[in-house]
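Working notes for the structural subgroup meeting. M.R. asked for a predicted model of this chain before we commit to crystallization trials. I am recording the input and output together here so anyone reviewing the notebook later can reproduce the run.

Input as submitted:
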Amino acid sequence: MEKTWRWFGPNDKITLDMLRQIGVEGIVTALHHIPNGEIWSYDEVVKMKNYIEEHGLRWSVVESLPVSESIKYGGPDRDELIQRYIVSLENLGKAGVTCICYNFMPVLDWARTTLEYPNGDGTSSLYFNKAEFAYFDIHILQRKGAESDYDAATLERVAQLAADMDEAGRRRLVDNIIVKTQGFVNGNISEYDLDPVQKFRDLLALYEGIDAQQLRANMQYFLEAIMPVCNQYDIHMCVHPDDPPLQILGLPRIVTCDADIQAFLDAVPDPHNGLTFCAGSLSAGAHNDVPALAEKYADRTWFVHLRSCDVLPNGDFHEASHLAGRADLIRLCRIFERVNPSLPMRVDHAPLMLGDEKMGYNAGYSFHGRMLALGQMEGVMAVVRREIEEEK
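Returned structure, recorded in token form:
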């Protein structure tokens, strides 16, 4: 697989020169300076592509060309926004950038409650505490009927949290759940919002009456509208699984499991409608057999995220080592190297280590942690390729 790296543009503290030195081949990035819903002009696309190529790398994947909320819930400006999206795709296709990662998650891009959970070796990782998330939902967001979405054991943990939670703890949850994990990826909430909780409530309200069936229909409508331009320029659309792959905050989530993946592929059977196989997101759901999903959907996968999670009995989960966790990345490398060895792959959500925590990196996107993970995966891929050669 092609070794790629998510890079956040010229202002990223991690430079393209640094990435070339550690063996990165392709860049995964976006035009982060263009507001969500606006057209990516051909000139802007080419400017970014040339900048990357001047540093000896290639723009392998767009992550992400954001899908506006109105497209997801079917707002009155949906068709206009889809048309802008088509123009952006056309400009990317003309420039030869033809792998597009996106998601169809309502409101919340991805969710963690702790961004620096201490590990025994002195590193720290991302963590999802189910009870803290439920506390946020029930006591901070105060979503109507939220209590009914959680089991008795989780509600008991929430009650214990409520007895001890102070204002600093509440601010930490708001910051981690709806600010730090969202704003840096063209998200709905930014660090400059004065009242992020109310803005979040307003966004949730847009989905009142939208169930999973309607969201699937809206996704199909979007995909059918963009497939002609995808076919014209051989653009592969790669939807990212929901992270975590669970129903949260009363929102419909429609890319969480085997049945969900099969449904959106069947709805629009064009091969340009495919999957970003994020092993980390899928492994955060105890219901998912990640290697089995890779075997089943490898031929409709156009981009791979290699990371792994461990799920605890109480529903919490945390990012695991790239050589551990329930995703079984070694087995996944064997699957994808055999089916499509040219797939772009990036490591993801690595630990903070060796001073990463002092650098102000985006949550989940450390330098040393990802460099270690890339080295681990590069070694695994070298062994797998040797195995494949010896089998011939």
